[in-house]
Amino acid sequence: MDFDVLIVGAGSAGLSAALTLGRCRRRVLLADGGAPRNAPSPAVHGFLTRDGVQPAKLLALGREQLAPYPTVEVHELKITKLHKLAHGFRAEGTTDQGHAWAGTANRVLLATGVDDVLPALPGFRELWGTGVLHCPYCHGYEVRDQPLAVYGRGKAAVGLALLLTNWSQDIVVVTDGPGHLTDYGRQRLRQHHIGLRQEPVARLVGGPGGTLRCIEFTDGSYLERTAVFLHAPQEQRSALAADLGALITSKGAVWVDKNAQTSIPGLYAAGDTTPGQQQALIAAAEGSKAAICLNEALTKEQVMQHKRTAC
Ligand SMILES: Cc1cc2nc3c(=O)[nH]c(=O)nc-3n(C[C@H](O)[C@H](O)[C@H](O)COP(=O)(O)OP(=O)(O)OC[C@H]3O[C@@H](n4cnc5c(N)ncnc54)[C@H](O)[C@@H]3O)c2cc1C
Question: Which residues form the FAD/NAD(P)-binding domain (predicted)?
């Protein structure tokens, strides 16, 4: 095998896993095929000791701190295919120079993240990460006490609006057509003085620095807001797990057991790609945990091999 572990994806989860495995003196290839999920955002909030750091700076620091570990290689390499071998994996990919690459690894860790699927309306993509926000824990403090909107329908929109009342008392739920709200949902919005607009939305109008100025409806009316929150549907950033036949949850995440292993022996996953809360610090912790599980599985394998040879 060329490597003990191939880590696919060098966001918070992948970098953190590489650090732990480098410290275990494992031969690691960390393959990165592009920008992290939060690339459009000006800052990473809530990351212990790095609150407010630029996303690219956080990852650059992570890469810098891998440099002292000689068994860790980092490459700009998009992994396009994984083949399960009798023992380990064969991977194929394309470098950032467009060259084909292939190699083998005893184990693979997927830290490939997710993509957010934004509404196909003008303004959402343009203001993503600045005026269009996904998470109050990441950005709520920055827009505290400001006029906010929640874009969405049904129970999920009511839940997000109620959650936001901790940051602002001026919230309007914008359902962009019939809101599919229950009587109970409407009652809860009223109780918390949360407004409701069900007219179809035409577009979001931006202000200076990527902020939101207003939400414009198709009837020509508009609602002035400084930010809109939404829980966008997500897609896996890579199909590698699904292509290998790994179990995917009903919510589209890559299933893992308590040792970060997917349903495919030897294939591990960490970070946003797996179920659970999605934050950079959580992804980093999951990457570190997966690395410990990987190192222990590899150690166990070595000990068994040694025992067999000795016999
Ligand atoms: C707009 C926005 C703002 C956010 N703000 C915050 C915040 O303030 N605080 C916070 O804690 N969290 C924030 N988050 C959440 C945070 O971005 C994620 O939780 C975190 O990035 C997850 O880390 P990850 O390593 O799992 O995935 P990612 O950071 O998305 O990294 C995955 C990496 O895998 C690479 N990759 C994918 N497929 C392949 C492949 N086939 N081959 C090679 N490489 C591949 C990708 O290019 C990427 O570099 C924000 C998210 C968004 C969308």
Answer: 3-287
Phi, psi of 62 (to 5 degrees): -60, -45
Whether residues 95 and 46 share a domain: the answer is yes
Q: Whose CA is nearest to atom 4 of ligand 1?
A: 38
For residue 57, the domain's CATH number is: 3.50.50.60
Please indicate, yes or no, whether residues 271 and 189 belong to a single structural domain of this protein.
no
Among 180, 204, 229, which residue terminates a domain? Answer: 229
Atom of ligand 1 nearest to the CA of 59: 29
Task: Using the atom order of ligand 1, give the atom closest to the CA of residue 80.
Answer: 41
Among 12, 87, 31, CA closest to 270: 12
**For residues 3 and 205, what is the distance between their CA atoms, to the nearest angstrom?**
50
For residues 270 and 291, give the distance between their C-alpha atoms in angstroms, rounded to a whole number. Answer: 9
Each residue's pLDDT tens digit, 204-250 = 999 998 999 999 999 999 999 999 999 999 999 999 999 999 999 99
Q: Which of 200, 229, 258 is the last residue of a domain?
A: 229
- Cα(32) to centroid(ligand 1), Å: 12
Residues with CB under 6 A from ligand 1: 8-14, 31-38, 40-41, 44-47, 78-79, 111-113, 116, 128-129, 134, 138, 237-238, 271-273, 278-281, 283
Determine contact, residues 76/89, Cβ cutoff 8 Å.
no
For 96-165, list the strands marked E by DSSP. Answer: 100-110, 114-116, 132-133, 148-151
Specify the amino acid at residue 142: E
For 16-31, give one letter per residue: b (16+ CB within 10 A) or e.
Answer: bbbbbbbebebbbbbb
pLDDT in tens, 254-298: 999 999 999 999 999 999 999 999 999 999 999 999 999 999 999
Number of structural domains (the chain) is 2
Q: Which residue range is the domain that position 149 belongs to?
A: 118-229
